[in-house]
Amino acid sequence: MSEAERFSVPRWQSGQPAELRVLDVDVEGPVLSDEARRVAERIASKYPTRRSAMIPLLYLVQAEVGWVPRRGMREVADVLGLTTAEVEAVATFYTMLKLHPCGRYIVSICTNPSCALLGARRLYERARELLGESAERVSEDGLFTLEEEECLAACDQAPVVAVNFLFYDRVSEEQLESMIEEIRQGRPPAASRGGIPGELKDISRVLAGLGTDRAAEVEDG
Ligand code: FES
């Protein structure tokens, strides 16, 4: 066995391959508007230590752009008085922060052992057939990003699929097909444990600790 083969990690063991998670792409120009900067300051002021606001501010960037470009990490570092390397170290660790352009709905299929034993690999391949290969970055209609996910800690409900971080339990191929169709029609189905997934920007705003009402945020600030 060659050195390269010895150290290559089979895709099914690695979840989302690094080359799909991190791309050498960025955006030009500021990503946080003056309004978003005011919101960022308001978020940061809620914490006794400004660095503790790092993850909410990264979600704020994701809410503004739809993903987290390096330019956004630099701006978060600037707001918090940190180095860009400190922010990058956090942003590259958390997989809910997306480091490349994404569709409006992230379809994450767990392919770890419990789910794999109950057909997750076939689900993933079926999703890829339905959404097209480009969906592993962004589907041609801009609606979907398809990704393999590591264990979602819901193994007793395998196979598990998440759409914008809300879980669907014991998903069959037929259910997957109808979920995708309903999202295409603008009616995402209710998740198994409640909630209807919003678009990635809206969900990211909530994860930043904000509501979805931008006007109220500015007034609140
Ligand atoms: S293996 Fe899929 S949720 Fe744990």
Kindly describe this structure.
The structure is a single chain. The chain is α+β, with helices and mostly antiparallel strands. Helix content is 45%, strand content 8%. It has 12 helices and 4 strands. It has helices at 3-7, 11-14, 18-21, 34-45, 54-65, 70-80, 84-91, 113-117, 120-131, 173-184, 200-207, 214-220, and strands spanning 105-110, 144-149, 161-163, 166-168. A 4-stranded mixed β-sheet has the order 2-1-3-4, with helices on one face. A hairpin with a 2-residue loop joins strand 3 (161-163) and strand 4. The longest helix has 12 residues, at 34-45. Residues 1-14 have low confidence and may be disordered. FE2/S2 (inorganic) cluster (FES) binds next to helix 8.
